[in-house]
Sequence to fold (263 residues):
Amino acid sequence: MKKILSLILVVMMLATAVCFVGCGKKNDNTLTVYTEAGFAPYEFIYNNEIVGVDIAIMKAVAEELGKELVVTDVAFDTICTSVQNGKADVGAAGITIRPDRAEQVDFSIPYSSTEQYVIVPVADETIKTLDDLKDKKIGIQNGTTSDMLIADLIADGTLGAAEIIPYTSPAVAAASMNKQTAVVTDKLTAQLIVANDSSLKAFPLVKADGTPAAEVEEYGICVQKGNTELLEAINKVLGDLMASGTIDQWVEEYSAKAKEVGA
Ligand code: ARG
Fold:
């Protein structure tokens, strides 16, 4: 009897241990997603709810896994670290796949691509290329690829005494245009910001010779390193959504919704 009891105990302990390893730290039925919801059409607030392309993707993943989706709006520059230390299961925030970030977290297959755009007042005639941003104040969302690009160009002297004005989101940056000459952010977000504000215009950030100031970027969804089970589920859903043209459809749909609410 004693033997059977201890055997049951061992089996129970093993089962718990396996679940802790396999299910991450959260031994429950939720899928926790961190995002930064000031980034239409990928994530923004619509009727008091976080919606967008990334959220629609994660809903499909949660459905596939039979889990409940919990989406939390956090500072963009904390997302990868929170996924790395297991605070969140997933980071879905239009996150550009970069080698330095891939040291921290594992990325899904790419599902969207983008390039760097610049936003200036409609009346501005002075800013046409990267060179024109020399010595200027530039509004940028903290911790983004725009932030890294401009910081590098300041560090190597290309942009002279230019200065980064840090913001929590590109939309907030663009709403404070009097504090800076320009805002740099990803293409679709820039295009939606100016679609909602007739005092602003947006165009690709190019070098003086007209070539792009930075390489094309690709978005990926991130999970904790080694969480292959979750990553495989995400990749499967992304593959299906891309093959059926659903991601493109969602970009259209959520761009229209963002215009509707001025997000
Ligand atoms: N693609 C850029 C990056 O990875 C900007 C992403 C900003 N995303 C957001 N949800 N605010 O740095």
Remarks:
- The radius of gyration is 21 Å.
